[in-house]
Amino acid sequence: IVADPEERARHLALSLADPDAAAAATLEAAARAAAARGASATAAELAEQALRLTPTEDRGGRCERGIDAGWYAFIAGDATRAWVLLEQASSTAPPGRLHARALVRLAWLDHHAGDRHVAVERYRSALDAASGDLALEAEAHSLLAWCVFIMREDVPLAAHHARLAVDLAERLEDPVLLTDSLAVLGQIEFFGGGGLPSPAMERALATPAEPADGRVLRQPRQHWAILLLDADRFDEARGHLLHIHQLALDHGDESALPWPLMRLSQLELLAGDWHKAIAYADSGLDAALQTGQRPPQADLLCTRALVLAHLGRADEARAAATEGLRLARSCGAGIGRRIVLWALAFLDLSLGDVAAAHERLEALRASSKSAGIVDPGENRYLADLGEALVALGRIEQAEDLAGELEALGRSLERPSALAMAERVRGLAAAEAGDLERAVSHYERGLEQHAAAANPFDEARTLLSLGSAQRRARRRRDARGTLSTAAERFDALGAALWAEKARAELGRIGGRAPSPDGLTPTETRVAHLVAEGMSNKEVAAALVVSVHTIEAALTSIYRKLDVRSRTEMAQRLQDGASRSASIDGGGRSSP
């Protein structure tokens, strides 16, 4: 009596205990309809009922429906059930097309939820099993290209399979496969130093194609956003990533959610909103855990470690990095492995352990060269390597690195790479005692930062500039530059780097800007807290994160030698009373 086709199919399934070919076909159609409208969990349930009602002698039908049921379960976020169904389909499939199709789906599951090294072998087995089925060969080549590429171990090999996939997709006139293959080829060529524009990626974006399985991560906008992110076009990248995230929610594609969230976290770290960066990393990690996807878990743990390292939360960063690196190595999560090495090296550098930072960064650089990853947007750690080389006295190597960055920055028209090159050259000049040349490099770097829109890197260049000005005895300039750097670090929540800037300020002779040593930002925070506002209220008033306020209070307590908000308020009141006494002609106590 119900009119809805899916409800009718469900009642039909529940009314039958024995196999029924007609009922199985009805349920299969209902599952596909549910999947098309984004009801992945419903699709998975109906597909399993179709599989249950398929007669045992229909070996091919059982395999097809087992593959569909496993696929829908994965999209709905149940990787555990997907493993069971796809492994069963693979083990019972007859030789040929069905076996190859089952292997491709199982490899995809390994790729996203299991071990990518295993996925590579399954894709190769699928190519052998496809035996002349060009459509399956094209799909296997395309997905193998993605898998090898995302492992970040052999980009040229990924390019080989991507080009084979493009050729086959063109012969088949299959727009979906063509779009998939062009998207991976575009990323590969970009990572290899091809820069923008990317003909392959632009062709993928212009090809009208709607995946039959509704898989959100097959949308080329997801991959175009990564190129925009690496090219410093943050606003454009953000728009595409938010669109993909919403699309995953609308389509019920739970398994797709970790990916845009990871990239959004990395984007906001660079763009300077570290509160959002940590929130996106946490949300993505939750989504990866809920859907049972180990490689995205690794990538997001490592991304979280990088954000925490920038925030100066050393213990939390190391804990996330340790777990993330362990998981990344076990499942072939190449993105996470690269990120976590940078996170640990950056933390070492922030804490003054230059030798440890250098060792990690050299290992990361060697792996980048081995894999064929050239683009500076994927190698943003190089500026840290340059700083470590200078600190270790390896000036010639630092100059060579700066030359490499400058050449890439000019050929790719990439302001961030040019800014990094200028800072490394400035550090090298300062180390050699040529402070005038160092200041010139830093000032040119700041011009590039204005176009790159990376506030943390800009603040680091300001810190280096202020240090050089101080050493050159340009005290007034140094005080202004370093105060600005400290305020920028405070606004970001970069507690360790704010301390570095304040330490440099403390080395300047002459009258300090404030009798208690507080920066203007710290003074504002102290007075608002003294008025009774909570950390959250102060953060809202100053339009910064709560972590920024917490870092500022830690510094304020240290400078004022107090241990509580009450003591701080009293100290500020005493200071105000002394100032009033002086203004009134009285004398302050020593």
Kindly describe this structure:
The chain is mainly α and 590 residues long. Helices cover 78% and strands 0% of the residues. Helix 6 (97-113) packs antiparallel against helix 7 (116-130) and helix 22 (415-431) runs parallel beside helix 24 (455-471). It starts with a helix and ends in a 7-residue tail after the last helix.
Q: What is this entry, summarized?
A:
With 590 residues, the protein is mainly alpha-helical. The relative contact order is 0.05. The protein is elongated, with a radius of gyration of 28 Å.
CA distance, first residue to last residue: 92 Å
Name the beta content range. Answer: under 5%
Write down the Rg: 28 Å
Would you list the SSEs in sequence order as H and E? HHHHHHHHHHHHHHHHHHHHHHHHHHHHHH
Question: Low-confidence runs (pLDDT<50, min 5 residues)?
Answer: 582-590
Biggest sheet overview = none
- Total beta strand runs: 0
The helicity comes to: over 70%
Provide the structure class: mainly alpha
Integer average pLDDT:
90
What is the overall number of helices? 30
Provide tags for this entry:
mainly alpha, disordered C terminus, elongated, 590 residues
SSE order and pairing:
Elements: H1 5-14, H2 21-36, H3 40-53, H4 59-75, H5 79-92, H6 97-113, H7 116-130, H8 134-151, H9 155-172, H10 175-194, H11 199-206, H12 220-230, H13 234-250, H14 258-271, H15 274-290, H16 294-311, H17 314-331, H18 334-351, H19 354-371, H20 382-391, H21 395-412, H22 415-431, H23 435-452, H24 455-471, H25 475-492, H26 495-506, H27 520-530, H28 535-542, H29 546-560, H30 565-583
